[in-house]
Amino acid sequence: MAYTSWLDRLGLHRRELRAWALYDVANSAWMTTVMTAVFPLFFVKVAASGLPENVARSRFAFATSLSVILVGLLGPLLGAIADYRGSKKLFLGAFLALGAAATAAMYFIADGQWVFALATFVVGNVAVTSTLAFYNSLLPSIASADEVDRVSTAGFALGYLGGGLLLALNMAMIGNPQRFGIPDAGVASRLAFLSVAVWWVLFSIPLFRQVPEPARRLEATETGDESTVRIAVRRRSNALSIEIQDDGRGFDPCRYRMSEPDMDRGMGLSALELRAQMIGADLKLSSQPGHGTQINLLVPIKEKRSE
Prior knowledge:
By secondary structure, the protein is mainly alpha-helical. It has helices at about 1-10, 15-45, 55-85, 90-105, 115-140, 150-175, 185-200, 205-210, 230-235, 260-265, 270-280; strands at about 250-260, 280-285, 295-300. It has a single domain, classed as Up-down Bundle (Growth Hormone, Chain: A), CATH 1.20.1250.
C-alpha cells in the first residue's frame, strides 16, 4: 500500500516509532509559540510593562541563560539516576507534568508580574529541555542502528510541522483576536500559552502508551543494590564540568562535559543542539579520548552591550 510505503520511507513503519516521533510534535509547540514567537514580546510588553524595555529584555535574556545552566547542572545527574533505575519514562513524565503546569500558569500572568512570568518561563524551559534528554534516550531501545537516523529526522520534521501549525493558529488569534471572540491580544497571548500546555500533553500520550521503558543499565562494577544517588554521583563525578564567564561580546560560554556513554544514548546532546538552534547560540564540540566530549555553548545574554 502507498500508505505503508510512505511510512517506510520516513522510517515510521512501526507504531512505537510513530509514537516516539509524535513527542517531537508535542514539545515543538513550546519551542515555537512560547520560546520563540509569543512569550518574549509578551514579557516585554505585558509582564514587564513597568520596566524600561532594555531592562526587561536583559532580564529575559538572563532567565534564558539561567535555564540552560540549570539543565546543564541537573541533566547529567538525573540522566544517570534514570539510567540506573530504568525509569526514563517516569522522569520524562514528571518533567512533562511540571512543564505543562508552568506553561498553563502563564495564562494568569498579569501586567507588571515579571517575576512570576520569568519563574514560569524558567520552569517550563528547564522542563521541556529535560524531557528531550529522556525522550532521545528512548530511541535506541526501539530502533535498530540503521533506523535511528531516519526516525530521528522524521521526528524532527514532524515537530517543526506540528509546532509551526499551532504557531500559525496562535499568531492568527493574536493578530485578530476579535475575529475569534477574544477581547484583545493580551488575552489571546495567554490563551496561546494554554493551548501549548494542552497540545504538549495530548501529543505525548502515544509515547507513554506505545514506547516501552528500556531495560535498566548497570555498569561493570555495579550490582543494582547500591544507593541510587551515590551511583549517580559516581557516574557523573568525572564527566561534568560547567564554566560560566562573560567573553566581552555579550555571550556566556557554558562548557558542559558529557560522558561518552551518554553521547551514545543521546542523553543531553540533542537537547543542547536544539536549544542552541532556538536561541541563536553557537554550539561547538571537541572530543578527548577517555575524557568524554566537551560541548561549548555560547548563549546570547544581551542584544547590545552598553558601554
